[in-house]
Amino acid sequence: MITGIGHTAFRVRDLQKSLHFYCDLLGLKHAFDLDRDGKPWITFIYVGNGQFLELFPTQNPSDEFYGNEGSYRHQQMIVDDMEKTIAELEARGLPRSENPPKLGRDGNVQYWLTDPDGNRIELMQMMPGCMHEQALARLEAEAVH
Question: Which domains does the chain have, with CATH numbers?
Fold first, then answer.
């Protein structure tokens, strides 16, 4: 079953300006980063209540940034049991994706869907010890001190 929204993901032109906006100005917390091939790939910003923003820095700032796609990348929804959730969705008539659930770099199980307008939706089952859980523990400990 879907239990909540875990994150919304956006492309950003300038990661440092985005970090300043979300962390320094809005007061949100930088949680953790994922790199790919030695380059920044995703920066996670903690919003609260187990929810995050994912910021994807553009790899080539000279490219047309928004184009027809805008900066929206995907919406992620948290599920309590991935296989059970997929079975429930299939029972409602949603065909199974060609891509099976897989373990992501952040230590969680993910499964991708597309809505009728082509918007990507990531279903994620949070796993014990995942990077999100580690970041939440660290951020909560920092808030106490």
Answer: 2-59+70-144 (3.10.180.10)
